[in-house]
Prior knowledge:
This protein is α/β, with parallel strands linked by helices. The chain is 30% helix and 23% strand.
Amino acid sequence: xxxxxxxxxxxxxxxxxxxxxxxxxxxxxxxxxxxxxxxxxxxxxxxxxxxxxxxxxxxxxxxxxxxxxxxxxxxxxxxxxxxxxxxxxxxxxxxxxxxxxxxxxxxxxxxxxxxxxxxxxxxxxxxxxxxxxxxxxxxxxxxxxxxxxxxxxxxxxxxxxxxxxxxxxxxxxxxxxxxxxxxxxxxxxxxxxxxxxxxxxxxxxxxxxxxxxxxxxxxxxxxxxxxxxxxxxxxxxxxxxxxxxxxxxxxxxxxxxxxxxxxxxxxxxxxxxxxxxxxxxxxxxxxxxxxxxxxxxxxxxxxxxxxxxxxxxxxxxxxxxxxxxxxxxxxxxxxxxxxxxxxx
Length: 344
């Protein structure tokens, strides 16, 4: 029997690799569901919805036209690849954040990889609800920074209309459908990439926002009279309180890791959950309106699709400059919350 070697094995030196956001894209369905449309089917008004959420309309998929999470992901990623001047065959990995894919197996990511011809790339879904894209952004970044990958696509997409009870006023007024994609690439410029990040979850509060399919998915004291199987349920009051508190704490925590102040951040790209929550955080840190992008009025809350949709629109508008410091923040079911502070 050979004695084990006493020679110390040194881990390899970490590679000196920066990460840049090389391309972005987004896709939304054509159909607009306005507050006036909703007022014809549920007890609500345009004014009531705007006062409480800031939402005027949201986009919804039409399955009869073949619109789905997969079709939106395909469109968003095609645009992001074109923006990055890459082919799908150049991708090493595809990460898709979604809770509303057509199937659990295979993953949406595997289907999208096949659709676009990225058949040699790794592919997997990330389930962190509204926080999913920011989770995926941090994961993709670290895989590139570690030296194992060079080109990673991160997509956030949800077709919330497929998991919403159209008669549930608590949810139907809030959610819409959208997808956004970002292509991350390795670069020799070490100044680019994540400066600080956070991933959090509190599973003990799962029952504040959940999607039940069978009896065992229901928390104690709940029943099917509250809503049909396969439809999202939300304790709006508790989720709102959680989001307001968490949003401010998350921004503070992330800034403290770098020693930066809110004034040092050029853009805050936040999950579009509720206009009142965004405004509360903006006032708390004295953030000028032009530094916190808001599009919830036009799209509603598109869950994992909201943050990358904002990013893609901002880049299309020329509002993300080389070297800018950009903070991504999100929170959602799980309960989950996450941040990602970049020098882009």
